[in-house]
């Protein structure tokens, strides 16, 4: 269908590549749309942090930090930018879209690793290709200006790690509140329901109906018996 043709990433016309994914936040149920957009913004922040880290490692190399860190920063940028989108953002996007336990479980499995990696990046072990706290603070005794440049991705890595942990906690609490479980995810995997568009549409409608009913119950006017008045 024309309205579901891949539109992400948006590429200029002169690039001989085409978008690989269809992304439209309007297809996410309204009660999940805000959180889904926040996860997308977190992915953008993570990608921007890797790009800033690449620039800082370039400056670090000229200040005597070695070629290894600069080379690894290229790998971090080129590998983890697309991999993070495919491996944890797309699963949570699909999970919010169709209330899929399988995609929730896939997201939790990958995103926990993402949180661990972000913490390691913020620590900044020398030789890992990241400008974290250890690498940056130790370089102040050699070159203050370059150390200040390295401080920028260090703060960004810390922000990504903190926000990732908060996001993981919030989504996990939401998932537990829905009554879903590992057994449901295994059942979806065994039956193939996680990739069936008709089942996804039905689950999405059920989730929206449940949320609407809960909101109506919450905000409806209380009814009193005449004997109570």
What characteristics describe this protein?
single chain, 229 residues, mainly alpha, 7 helices, 0% strand, globular, disordered C terminus
Brief rundown of the structure:
The protein is mostly helical and 229 residues long.
Structure, explained:
It contains 7 helices and no strands. The radius of gyration is 22 Å and the shape is globular. The C terminus is likely disordered. The chain starts with 29 loop residues before the first helix and ends in a 10-residue tail after the last helix. It has 229 residues and is mostly helical.
* Helix content bin: over 70%
- Whole-number radius of gyration? 22 Å
Percent strand equals under 5%
Contiguous uncertain segments of 5+ residues: 198-204, 206-229
Number of helices: 7
Distance between the termini: 59 Å
Number of strands: 0
What string gives the helices and strands in order? HHHHHHH
The biggest sheet amounts to: none
Secondary-structure-derived class = mainly alpha
General form: globular
How do the strands and helices of this protein lay out in sequence?
Blueprint: H1 30-65, H2 67-98, H3 101-123, H4 133-139, H5 144-177, H6 182-191, H7 197-219
Helix pairs in contact: 1-2, 1-5, 2-3, 3-5, 3-6, 4-5
């Amino acid at each position: 269908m024309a309205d579901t043709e891949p539109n992400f990433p948006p590429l200029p016309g002169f690039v001989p590549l085409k978008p690989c994914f269809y992304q439209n936040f309007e297809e996410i149920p309204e009660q999940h749309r805000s959180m889904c957009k926040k996860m997308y913004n977190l992915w953008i922040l993570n990608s921007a942090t890797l790009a800033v880290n690449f620039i800082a490692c370039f400056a670090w190399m000229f200040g005597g930090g070695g070629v290894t860190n600069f080379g690894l920063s290229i790998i971090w940028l080129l590998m983890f930018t697309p991999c993070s989108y495919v491996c944890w953002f797309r699963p949570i996007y699909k999970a919010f879209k169709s209330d899929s336990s399988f995609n929730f479980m896939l997201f939790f499995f990958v995103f926990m690793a993402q949180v661990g990696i972000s913490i390691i990046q913020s620590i900044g072990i020398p030789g890992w290709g990241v400008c974290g706290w250890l690498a940056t603070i130790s370089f102040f005794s050699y070159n203050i200006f370059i150390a200040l440049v390295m401080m920028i991705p260090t703060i960004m890595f810390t922000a990504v790690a903190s926000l990732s942990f908060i996001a993981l906690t919030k989504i996990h609490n939401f998932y537990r509140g829905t009554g879903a479980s590992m057994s449901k995810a295994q059942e979806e995997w065994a039956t193939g329901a996680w990739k069936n568009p008709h089942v996804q549409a039905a689950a999405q409608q059920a989730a929206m109906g449940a949320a609407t009913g809960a909101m109506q119950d919450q905000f409806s006017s209380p009814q009193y018996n005449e004997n109570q008045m």
